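tool_call: predict_structure(chain=1)
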Amino acid sequence: MRDPYSVLGVAKTATEAEIKKAFRTLAKKFHPDQNQDDPGAQRQFSEANQAYEIVGDKEKRAKFDRGEIDADGKPRYAGGFGAGGPGAGGFSGFQDFDKSSGFRSRTESGGNYSGGGFDDILNDILGGFGGARRGRGPAGPGAAGAGTRQRATGAPPKKGQNADIIAHVSLEEVVNAGKTAVKLPSGKTVNVTIPAGTTEGETIRLRGQGHPGSDGGSAGDAMVEVRLKKHPLFEVRGYDLLLDLPLALYEAVLGAKVRTPTLTGAVNLTIPAHSSSGKIMRLKGKGLPTKTGGHGDLLVKLQITLPPHEDSELHTLMTAWRELTPYKARGPEFD
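tool_result:
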């Protein structure tokens, strides 16, 4: 590793407070939680940690300044230092480099690490990244520090995958409630607001409601695709709705007021006299909500329906009518 003073950007004459401030600045800048997609930043974070391991500890800093250990904390002299136990002026079993985490142990067998509040600095930084849960645990300061160190220097946190959810929504929910119930990957059911103007196939994103992350990473998002349920009466045409309205023959001929269903309650629709089957009448604002805050329309298509049973009087009337008042029901394109 490079010279720890250079890594931290301080002079060899720097005070403990200056070293601590420099480490805090680098740790915040390059912390893995803030740079999940930047391997370079994670390497710099690792290097800053190793540098502070050396010069953030009074004893190790003194040994480094005297040339007894190198920038990695290893003895500079093969003889007389800790290969087989404490020697004269030597080390007492400095623990090996942890290849899995990329960091050196903080303790020597001769005593605990006393690097000027390393755990306090790291806990303070992690707390700012939503990591307050990484604080000291019941096993004591040593165990808590080790746990914090393992979390901070292990694999970078990974965000959970998004969860694809299909919500089958009724037209009544779209128009009246504006919400629909959705079951999340956690098993919890929540009411999801349907934004005005949402149409078939559009997706609503629920942030942080997807699959959980790993290594402390945040949860993914729930991607809720809206599917409109088929309605027994209304057909969706964009933001408009189409309704087939059955009429008795005499209602079509003479005109009538007919009770007509809508998604917000039935209304009385005036049918003009002499209305043909297939005629479309428009009820303004009785369709689906639009993105601009309005509503589509309800298109009412008249459908003349004959009596369910044969009627001799109607047969006689239609026979006479055909003879007295014949008319063409179809245009020339049918000739």
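agent: DSSP finds nine helices and 13 strands in the chain. Proceeding to next step.
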